[in-house]
Design brief:
This protein is mainly alpha-helical and 419 residues long. The chain has 21 helices and no strands. The radius of gyration is 22 Å and the shape is globular.
Length: 419
């Protein structure tokens, strides 16, 4: 299972809340209608049940299309953890053909949401199967002046997701081309529309690209993309009406990733300077996740005692936000364990190991349950046999990963006991 950063996801979620509160609108829609305004009013106050009811009602009266309805409901279902319902409704939309440019935009929004879903599931084949056929339609749509900015935003995100998927598969040359095409789309949309929101979208894509290279220890490539992100973040910060929370989160994301990349490049002084700037942000001062990023940074810097101190918040964080003991959540514990062990805090390391063992079976069961739900959904598709075989292979990889975690912790446990 590939390690994935959660920073960009938190960045997106917090910025969306800021956009909602400042503009009274949940998302940037390509064409404002009364129906759009009604739905946006509900989502702006996080009344998601009402938003779904309105979307279904407006669909029944013919005021919105099936694509607008499916995109709205699919996005809400994913945000609220109802992934099976989200996949079903998004696939329903993708089986239909849009009849006009406005419907096409929401059709491709559904495509983008499915691409994001497969990316979060580390399902590279599923992601590419949906994303690649969308290129032709999106490139056709950007030729329409009234649709171009929104179509470029969608295309840029899909290209970025495809690039990450290609990196996962070792297709580095293809990934580089996808990222360059993504950047080309970013430049074109920013030339068409100077709204700060397009800068915001662009910064997310560029941060994610830099993170993807950083996770592969390709820090030279990561530096290139973090430099692009820095330039766009500066432009956005200088524009009017940008919510302060959006700007703060953008700089937070920039500085912590700049620090990580500098460590990888052996530039410890520059890394510490970037980390000091990160610590000055509102996010770093007020968000518990920021302490985990501090622990990660200190761990990379081999400052194990400071890392262990920062990771002290992990249990509370998992209690507040990690509703289930998933393998992803347990990854925080492996880093906490390493920091304490390297710092010579053997009792604390043993405590973390015991906690991890206690929750490992539950994490495996949750992963198996999630993949079983995915199997039942896939079974209804035309590619059911191939998909099921692929998912069974992923399930096997999950079990192997869990076993490896258990073995590593057990080996370290007995090593400490001997000491």
């Amino acid at each position: 299972m590939k390690a994935k950063s959660n920073f960009s996801l938190i960045f997106i979620a917090i910025c969306l809340l800021a956009i909602s509160s400042c503009n009274k609108k949940q998302a940037y829609v390509p064409k404002t209608t009364l129906a759009d305004s009604l739905i946006s009013a509900a989502t702006s106050v996080q009344d998601l049940d009402r938003a779904i009811f309105l979307s279904d009602s407006l669909l029944a009266t013919g005021d919105i299309s099936i694509f607008r309805n499916c995109y709205m409901k699919g996005s809400i279902y994913i945000r609220t953890g109802k992934t099976r319902e989200a996949v079903d409704i998004l696939k329903f939309a993708l089986d239909k053909k849009p009849q006009n440019a406005y419907d096409s935009l929401f059709y491709f929004q559904c495509v983008k949401t499915m691409v994001e879903y497969h990316g979060q599931r580390n399902d590279d084949e599923g992601l590419l199967r949906i994303a690649l056929p969308a290129y032709e339609g999106l490139y056709a749509l950007v030729s329409s002046p009234e649709c171009a900015p929104e179509a470029y935003d969608i295309l840029a995100e899909i290209l970025q997701c495809v690039g990450v998927s290609q990196l996962h598969q070792g297709l580095t040359a293809e990934a580089k081309k996808s990222f360059e095409k993504c950047y080309d789309c970013i430049q074109k949309v920013r030339a068409l529309d100077t709204s700060w929101k397009h800068d915001y979208y662009a910064s997310i894509y560029l941060f994610n690209t830099a993170i993807s290279y950083s996770e592969r220890d390709d820090y030279a490539s990561a530096e290139k993309w973090i430099n692009y992100a820095e330039a766009i973040t500066k432009d956005m910060a200088n524009k009017k009406n940008v919510p302060a929370l959006v700007t703060d989160m953008s700089w937070s994301t920039y500085y912590i990733n700049r620090a990580t990349i500098c460590i990888g490049l052996g530039k410890q002084k520059e890394a510490d300077q970037a980390f000091a700037e990160f610590k000055r942000t509102y996010f770093a001062k007020t968000n518990s996740m920021a302490k985990i990023y501090e622990g990660d940074y200190m761990l990379r810097s081999k400052r194990y005692a400071q890392s262990a101190d920062a990771y002290a918040i992990v249990y509370q964080y998992l209690k507040d936000f990690g509703s289930e003991p998933t393998l992803q959540n347990l990854s925080y514990l492996t880093r906490k364990f390493k920091a304490n062990y390297k710092a010579g805090r053997n009792d604390s390391a043993l405590s973390v190991a015991a906690y991890t063992f206690e929750h490992l079976d539950s994490a495996i069961a949750i992963e198996k349950k999630n993949q079983a739900i995915e199997l039942s959904t896939i079974y209804q598709t035309q590619q059911k046999d191939a998909e099921i075989a692929q998912q069974k292979n992923q399930l096997l990889q999950t079990r192997v990963l869990a076993l490896l975690i258990a073995l590593v912790l057990a080996a370290t446990f007995f090593t400490i006991r001997r000491v």
